[in-house]
Amino acid sequence: MNDSEPDPHHDSRRDPHRDSSVDTDALRALRRRARLVTGLKSRHMWRISRTTLRYGVFLCGASCVALFSLIFAWIAEVALRWNHQLTVAMPWLAFVLLPFGLAGLRWLTICLAPQARGSGIPQVIAAVNLPPSGPAQAVLVSFRQSMWKVLLTTGGLLAGASIGREGPSVQIGAAAMLAWGRWCHERLQFRIGFHPNALIAAGAAGGLAAAFNTPLAGVVFAIEELGRGTAVRWDRLVLSGVLTAGFLSLAIFGNNPYFSVKTPILALHSAWGPVLLCALINGMLGGLFAKLLIGGMPALLPERLRAWPTQRPVQAAFLCGLVAAVIGWASGGATFGTGYEQAAGLINGESHATLWFGIAKLVATVVSYFAGIPGGIFTPSLAIGSGIGANVAQLVGHLFGGMTEPRMLALISMAAFLAAATQAPITASVIVMEMTRSQDLTIFLLAASLLSSFLARQFCPNPFYHQVGRAFRREAQIVTNKVVPAT
Length: 487
Prior knowledge:
Layout: H1 16-89, H2 94-112, H3 121-128, H4 135-140, H5 143-159, H6 166-186, H7 196-212, H8 215-224, H9 230-233, H10 236-253, H11 272-295, H12 308-311, H13 313-330, H14 340-346, H15 357-370, H16 378-400, H17 406-422, H18 425-436, H19 442-459, H20 464-479
């Protein structure tokens, strides 16, 4: 055969070198596909781990908020007990503790923590309406100032001021949660994108839930008071944090209500008339109460003296302490502190020596707020409402021959006055229902809260927390030189 002629048995398509090349390309393609599939699975597993880590870090922060709130509650109880022991043993000591105590606390607040004065809830509302991660937001929910708020609020309770610890717990919780999120982001390099407003809302509502031992009320508070944006209102992460703080409080103290009702209160259909009367009276008084707090001491003074409280804040606090001491002495010490003991007694049918405890507590709370020291109005408002409810029960008893339940009216009035003062009727009714475990009265609580809140708007059109929050927002912007020009 000629060498130039092709071999019929030779097939170039079956060239072993070419077959080897084809096999190698196929193997490479298979390996690339395997690596791609493995990479996709790894990334999918990382997404799950990222979500798990996000929830774990967030819930850990919420647990810290609950512990802060519970420790603060214990410190506040010690201060209240010491004040009670001192004022019972030496009643005249109130005229030393309150004037000089409030003056000293006002001076310390101005020097150390000016954004910590008052309740703390307006500061949180202002913070969630400021640019996230901005300097003004950090000023309002500063962790350092919140620690001073713990000490200064405790000092106010020790002196006998008519203030509460639940509002401060809200600001402390918001500051602690925001500090936790930033620490994880900066120090631990957890780049998992916590939104500052979500941290603030979860910490604030979690602090309230732990303070009252009411997880559901914390969620409602987050939705009704803080839920201006969808990130706060519907974020499952935020609501999980709030519930975690509340359930941790339940785990430590058990399923014990904040106010223990020893004998269940019957929901009588014949009580609708007195319940509506309670709503009307509490609506008017609660609206005036909020208007007084918003206006402050200058609103009660003649025009030529209105600048005096601002120019002489320490002296104004001394005067407020003196008035609070007189009211406390006249009421036998009933208006000192939060008013928890008096409210608990009234909803359990225990008669009180001071007939006008509700009005006396209202005035004592107003002057304590005017002093400009850290302290909330939540529990004092509940105490005021219980006192007003007791007065309504006495009035109805005289007019209709005792055809009502005084304990029921005291309980209904607690929610009605709180709803009128804050114009947050759902939060007020749920928090009173949950803290007393009185689910049978839910319809009465809702009706009274909604009616009193509507009536309060006729006296004070703007909700107290949001109106004061706007003032704090402007102040924080001025402090940080970030004033937004008026449009």
